[in-house]
Design goal:
With about 170 residues, the protein is α+β, with helices and mostly antiparallel strands. The chain contains one helix and eight strands. Strands 1-3-6-5 form a four-stranded antiparallel β-sheet, with no helix packed on it. A hairpin with a 5-residue loop joins strand 7 and strand 8.
Length: about 170
C-alpha cells in the first residue's frame, strides 16, 4: 500500500513539473502583448470589426472627420401615444432638422425592441433642411406601460441621439 502511495505521489509531482514546463515554454513562445501598433485605436484609418455592420446606410460608409460633421435638432425627442389597445399598430414621425453646415447623413436608426420599426431616408439632408424618422410600434403581445427607444446614429457630435416613445397598452378590444 505504501508503495502505491509513493508511486501516486511521484506521478503527481512529475505531472506538476510537466505542467509548469509547458506554461513556461508557452510564455516564451507566445507574444506578451496584442500585435497591434500602440496607436491602433487612435488611428482613424484602421477598420474595426464593427465598421461594416448590416442595416447601416450604405451612403454612410465613409469615414468621419471634423470637416464632415454637422448637428441635428429634433422637434421632440419623446412622444406619448397615450392609451392604445393591444394589437394596435401605431406610427409617429419624429421631425428633425439639419442645423449644421454640412449634409446630415443618418447612418442607422436601431430600435430597442423588435416590436418597433424605425425608417428614415438614406439620402443626405442638406443644411437647413428637414427630415423625418418614422417609428412604427406593434403592441401585439404587450400590456401596460411601454417605453421604447430608437438610437439614431449620424455624422453629428455626439454621434448618436436617442428618440423615445411611451404608450399605455390596454387589453384588446372586445
Amino acid at each position: 500500500m505504501k508503495e502505491n502511495l509513493k508511486t501516486i505521489a511521484l506521478i503527481v509531482i512529475a505531472l506538476s513539473f510537466f505542467a509548469i514546463a509547458v506554461v513556461e515554454i508557452l510564455r516564451l513562445v507566445l507574444p506578451k502583448e496584442p500585435q497591434f501598433p500602440s496607436n491602433f485605436i487612435e488611428n482613424k484609418n484602421n477598420a474595426g470589426p464593427m465598421q461594416n455592420m448590416m442595416g447601416q446606410n450604405p451612403i454612410a460608409n465613409q469615414r468621419l472627420n471634423d470637416s464632415t460633421l454637422t448637428s441635428i435638432e429634433f422637434a421632440e425627442e419623446i412622444f406619448n401615444f397615450g392609451d392604445i389597445y393591444e394589437g394596435d399598430i401605431v406610427t409617429h414621425e419624429f421631425k428633425l432638422k439639419n442645423t449644421g453646415k454640412n449634409p446630415l447623413v443618418i447612418r442607422s436608426a436601431k430600435a430597442s425592441c423588435g416590436c418597433t420599426i424605425p425608417s428614415y431616408s438614406k439620402e443626405p439632408i442638406m443644411p437647413g433642411n428637414e427630415g423625418i424618422i418614422s417609428v412604427v410600434f406593434n403592441s401585439e403581445g404587450k400590456g401596460g406601460k411601454q417605453h421604447k427607444a430608437v438610437h439614431v446614429t449620424a455624422n453629428t457630435i455626439p454621434n448618436f441621439t436617442v428618440i423615445e416613445f411611451t404608450a399605455n397598452v390596454l387589453d384588446k378590444k372586445k
